[in-house]
Amino acid sequence: MNILLLGSGGREHAFAWKIAQSPKCDQLFVAPGNAGTAQIATNLSIGVADFEKIKEAVLHHKINLLVVGPEEPLVKGLVDFLAQDEKTRNLPVVGPSKLGATLEGSKDFSKRFMQRHRIPTAAYETFDANQIEEGLAYLEKQKLPIVLKADGLAAGKGVLICQTLEEAKDSLKEMLLDQKFGEASAKVVVEEFLTGIELSVFVATDGKSYRILPEAKDYKRIGEGDTGLNTGGMGAVSPVIFADQEFMSLVEDQIVKPTIAGLAIEDIPYKGFLFIGLMNKAGKPYVIEYNVRMGDPETEAVLPRIESDFLDLLWAIGTENLKDYSLEISPDYATTVVMVSGGYPGSYQKGHPISLPDDAQNAIIFHAGTGRKETGELTNQGGRVIAVTGRGKDLEESLQNTFQTVNKISWKDHYFRKDIGQDILKLIK
């Protein structure tokens, strides 16, 4: 079959790498893609939110399956757009409807959904600019630290953890009155701070059946020891030792099942991936947030552990046949380290030549923010540039294989965290 994959990050390179392994993959197109996807697929110069051009590409290339990587086109209603046209209405798409994507597009919507379906999550209230006084009064009654979340999409930057009441009040005013995150903070969710260990659980669903994919832990902050600014993710580890069978059965019973059932009860069309950000609080799972796509860089650690045909999984989601799909997962560990441009997540320079090893033994190099000059030279074109994933029978071997390859990659001012997975190693030991 012919597949069109939307996106340009490390997640999409991992998707393309896995899809291309299937004997059922005839032609694979990625829009817009990156220098890594160009090696295994045909890149199309189309933006992920250019719905008309996407439709044209679907028809021109006789696409049989559309796979949506990032959240933006889903939140903006790509699935609904294609369903309204008689030429594309029968196209199987991996990605939820606009209403389903509101689970990520609006923090308030998702919290209300959790409340309605009795899904464990942190206590919260939502405020807009007209309710600023109520919001400030509410803050005075809460325990510190307290979490403030922009309601809409804010490129992973719309969550603030405030340590003092003064900081919380100032931040609430900045978000609501000064539009710190633009339209995204027209409403702000004020939420109880949960303590525990964070992890990411990924669910594939066709709206009726579901399969729980390997779980992962990601590392969001730029500095070692989880210090400094939040980023799009500096690394990931899968599996996660604190997500044992007992904990994961609680996740399935208390979170996954009521979420899938809730979508059906509320008649919310949902065919795609559901990324559940969780807190393990003394052995009990609480939902921090829903995302309506796979995570990045978790995807780069999760997909190498899937041993069954990944394209079959995607097709089963898009055609509502997931009940017949048998998911096979390797017991091996996979660890991902993200290499970034110096200065990220602040300002950074682009266009530096990247040196890659000829042979990455026991590791996979996924491209994210890469591009090629007319001369063919590989350069950094984004903040997060390369994700390296190593595998091993245990976490130690996996990390060793990852860093062996990381240390062979370089460009001017590159940076990576050397402590990915070390916290879990301590728990194991």
Overview of this structure, please?
With about 425 residues, the protein is α+β, with helices and mostly antiparallel strands. Among the domains are: about 100 residues, Rossmann fold; about 70 residues, ATP-grasp fold, A domain (Dna Ligase, domain 1). The protein has 13 helices and 23 strands. Strands 12, 15, 18, 19, 22 and 23 form a six-stranded antiparallel β-sheet that branches. It has a five-stranded parallel β-sheet with strand order 3-2-1-4-5, sandwiched between helices. Helix 1 links the parallel strand 1 and strand 2. It is globular.
Q: Layout of SSEs?
A:
Elements: E1 2-7, H1 10-19, E2 27-32, E3 42-43, H2 51-60, E4 65-68, H3 72-75, H4 78-83, E5 93-94, H5 98-105, H6 107-116, E6 124-128, H7 132-140, E7 146-150, E8 159-162, H8 165-176, E9 187-192, E10 197-205, E11 210-212, E12 217-218, E13 221-223, E14 227-230, E15 235-238, H9 245-265, E16 272-281, E17 284-291, H10 298-302, H11 310-318, E18 333-341, E19 363-367, E20 370-372, E21 378-380, E22 384-392, H12 395-406, E23 414-415, H13 422-428
Parallel strand pairs: 1-2, 1-4, 2-3, 4-5
Antiparallel strand pairs: 6-9, 7-8, 7-9, 10-11, 10-16, 12-15, 13-14, 15-18, 16-17, 18-22, 18-23, 19-22, 20-21
Helix pairs in contact: 5-6, 7-8
